[in-house]
């Protein structure tokens, strides 16, 4: 099958290219021109620079890449970034980087996510919709010395288009199978030239989804109705000041009937589920932020004030059968305030630097009710936590001699988190509380050398941590309610190269990361079915490589390739399961694909015709600590054919064109059966982009 898919990509490209070549009046050779690509400008280090100057591994995916491939969310985009995997399932989300994952029901992700300098900390926020984006920067490895909120394994930085003196308008219309439609509208430009600007963008999505409830014959049980919008006012009263006000929000109505039995008497076929409940989730997300920047000739001061709220409710058939046995009702809400100040050097010099101060407050309310036909199995949990933290962070780079740069940085963070919960089983209510206090010192260092303008080598040592928290959904007492922080020590070395005026780029990175105080889920002795605690009982490591390359032999043709390998393994973890002592040492970390890769080709003809073909692969992973629930490796092929004329681009496309079957989640039930959540089937449709 793999050979068939590679052959399909090659044959598609050859046939399309040949048909174009035969239609031309002049020979290709006679019209061939050289291509020179400019280095990509990034702000990942909070200062303007290039990807090669960044002290670590970074991938940059720009607006042209996103738009021409019709990418609508972060999960689909990160498949083009090696060793990045977004877990987006009915139970929640998380961003996995270099094999560093988290507990399935944890609220927070080990990888940071920022949208225009504002942190989106919850795992539920991981798979953001993508529209009107300037670029997305993917930074691997701890980034606590650059970003206000701590990040254990890396950062995804989404940079939105900022309004300016140029009037820009965009309309996106997309329709596809499963009654799918997406509409996006954005507009930005000057209110008063050189002084005041506006920006507005809105996007809506509706789909019935690809699952059918065979009990009710309802084919809309995994559907979505999403709306997100953003409004921006930017004010530049003079050359020194740049002030931006943002208001954004999202409403989501989600069908979450996705788990089905893959074995046992209740087993069903792929994308066929059985539920006697109306499985639904609703989410409401609202944010406000003010970013003020003041510039002097040699430095720049930035202040970012943000406030975000997030609310989620869901109703779910817990037993996944035709019988009314059990169901769950979850409620979760978060409110956060964040203030960040950054002072950074400006311009080119032997010494560049940044120093920042960040303060954060988060309040989380979370609870879940389990209702069972047998009353003694019913229970409810209702809890709350309040967290305050402050961090001082900074990083500096000094060019000791021409081409040799030394970078050092540190982060000092102090946090206090208190939580309380009431657990009500059939025997009566019990209340408890706990607190977590952390003081973290996180240094980093890097050495980079430019062998020539086209080859840069670097090595980096950095530290990170994932804050502790509270087990809102399965705790039974104070001991099983709270868990502490986990820590990482990351070593990496890499080489960044470009050849022939950036016609060919090739970057290679190797890394090794030690994980201590690993947050894991363990059974509560004597607690019964579904009684879990989160603890810091394990140590682990992950090691691997990342390769990224692009090649444009002529202006019309571009090849891209990426490969990431992450061997994540538990070094030490002994626990109790089913009343028996088990040793998970040597097992693979759950929710961590062994590898990811992408291979793509794009051809743009002078007539406006274009073709894009991508092969996207994900390696095997396990969904449990015992490594008994395995997700097999899989690869999907996407194809897009389009035409651009003036300001309008339209295309027909198909994703997972071979309808590859794969899983994104598996769960073992108390009865010994296995539940599975299927990945997306083959989809197809039509997209129109109008930029004017």
UniProtKB/TrEMBL annotation:
Residues 52-155 form the TonB-dependent receptor plug domain. Residues 208-645 form the TonB-dependent receptor-like beta-barrel domain. Coiled coil: none annotated. Residues 266-292 are annotated as: Disordered. It is a multi-pass membrane protein. Residues 268-283 have a biased composition (Basic and acidic residues). One of its GO terms (biological process) is iron ion transport. Its main location: membrane. Keywords: Cell outer membrane, Ion transport, Iron, Iron transport, Membrane, Receptor, Signal, TonB box, Transmembrane, Transmembrane beta strand, Transport. It is found in: Cell outer membrane. Gene3D superfamilies: TonB-dependent receptor, beta-barrel domain. The keyword Signal applies. InterPro entries: Beta-barrel_TonB, Beta-barrel_TonB_sf, Plug_dom, TonB-dep_rcpt-like. One of its GO terms (cellular component) is cell outer membrane. Residues 1-23 form the signal peptide. Belongs to the TonB-dependent receptor family. This is TonB-dependent receptor. It comes from Maridesulfovibrio salexigens (strain ATCC 14822 / DSM 2638 / NCIMB 8403 / VKM B-1763) (Desulfovibrio salexigens). The lineage of its organism: Bacteria, Pseudomonadati, Thermodesulfobacteriota, Desulfovibrionia, Desulfovibrionales.
């Amino acid at each position: 099958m793999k050979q068939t898919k590679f052959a399909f990509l090659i044959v598609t490209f050859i046939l399309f290219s040949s048909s174009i070549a035969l239609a031309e009046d002049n020979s290709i050779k006679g019209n061939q021109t050289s291509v020179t690509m400019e280095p990509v400008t990034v702000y990942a280090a909070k200062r303007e620079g290039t990807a090669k100057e960044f002290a670590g591994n970074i991938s940059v995916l720009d607006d042209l890449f996103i738009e021409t491939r019709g990418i609508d969310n972060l999960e689909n985009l990160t498949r083009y970034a090696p060793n990045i995997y977004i877990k987006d399932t009915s139970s929640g989300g998380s961003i996995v980087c270099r094999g560093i994952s988290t507990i399935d029901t944890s609220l927070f992700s080990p990888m940071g996510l920022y949208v225009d300098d504002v942190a989106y900390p919850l795992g539920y926020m991981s798979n953001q919709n993508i529209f009107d984006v300037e670029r997305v920067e993917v930074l691997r490895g701890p980034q606590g010395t650059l970003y206000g909120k701590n990040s254990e394994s890396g950062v995804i930085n989404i940079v939105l288009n900022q309004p300016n003196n140029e009037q820009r308008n965009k309309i996106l219309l997309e329709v596809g199978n499963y009654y799918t439609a997406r509409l996006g509208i954005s507009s930005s430009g000057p209110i008063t030239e050189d002084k005041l600007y506006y920006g507005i963008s809105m996007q809506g999505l509706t789909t019935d989804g690809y699952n059918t409830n065979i009990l009710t014959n309802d084919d809309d049980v995994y559907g979505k109705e999403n709306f997100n919008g953003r409004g921006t006012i930017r004010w530049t009263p003079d050359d020194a000041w740049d002030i931006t006000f943002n208001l954004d929000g999202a409403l989501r109505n989600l069908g979450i009937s996705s788990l089905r039995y893959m074995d046992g008497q209740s087993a069903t076929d792929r994308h066929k589920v059985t539920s006697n409940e109306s499985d639904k989730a609703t989410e409401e997300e609202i944010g406000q932020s003010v970013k003020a920047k003041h510039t002097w000739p040699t430095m720049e001061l930035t202040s970012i004030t943000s406030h975000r709220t997030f609310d989620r409710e869901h109703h779910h058939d817990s037993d996944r059968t035709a019988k009314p046995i059990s169901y769950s009702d979850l409620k979760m809400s978060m409110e956060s305030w964040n203030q960040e100040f950054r002072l950074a050097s400006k311009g080119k010099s032997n010494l560049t630097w940044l120093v920042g101060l960040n303060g954060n407050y988060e309040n989380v309310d979370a609870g879940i009710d389990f209702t069972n036909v047998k009353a003694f199995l019913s229970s409810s949990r209702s809890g709350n936590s309040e967290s305050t933290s402050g961090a001082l962070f900074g990083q500096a780079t000094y060019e000791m001699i021409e081409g040799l740069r030394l970078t050092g940085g540190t982060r000092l963070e102090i946090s206090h988190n208190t939580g309380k919960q009431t657990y009500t089983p059939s025997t009566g209510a019990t209340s408890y509380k706990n607190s977590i206090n952390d003081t973290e010192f996180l240094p980093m260092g890097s050495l980079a050398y430019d062998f020539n303008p086209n080859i840069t080598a670097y090595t980096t040592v950095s530290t990170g941590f994932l804050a502790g928290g509270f087990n809102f959904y399965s705790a039974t007492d104070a001991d099983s309610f709270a868990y502490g922080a986990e820590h990482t020590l990351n070593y990496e070395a890499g080489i960044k190269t470009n050849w022939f005026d950036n016609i060919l780029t090739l970057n290679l990175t190797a890394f090794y990361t030690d994980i201590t105080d690993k947050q894991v889920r363990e059974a509560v002795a004597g607690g019964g079915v579904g009684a879990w605690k989160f603890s810091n009982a394990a140590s682990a490591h992950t090691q691997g490589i990342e390769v990224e390359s692009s090649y444009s032999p002529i202006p019309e043709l571009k090849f891209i390739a990426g490969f990431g390998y992450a061997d994540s393994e538990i070094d030490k973890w002994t626990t109790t399961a089913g009343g028996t002592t088990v040793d998970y040492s040597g097992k693979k970390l759950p929710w961590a694909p062994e590898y990811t890769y992408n291979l793509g080709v794009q051809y743009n003809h002078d007539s406006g015709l274009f073709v894009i073909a991508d092969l996207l692969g994900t390696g095997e992973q396990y969904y449990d600590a015992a490594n008994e629930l395995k997700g097999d490796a899989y690869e999907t092929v996407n194809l897009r054919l389009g035409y651009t004329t003036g300001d309008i681009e339209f295309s027909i496309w198909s994703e997972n064109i071979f309808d590859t079957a794969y899983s994104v989640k598996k769960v073992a039930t108390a009865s010994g059966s296995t539940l599975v959540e299927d990945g997306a089937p083959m989809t197809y449709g039509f997209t129109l982009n109008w930029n004017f």
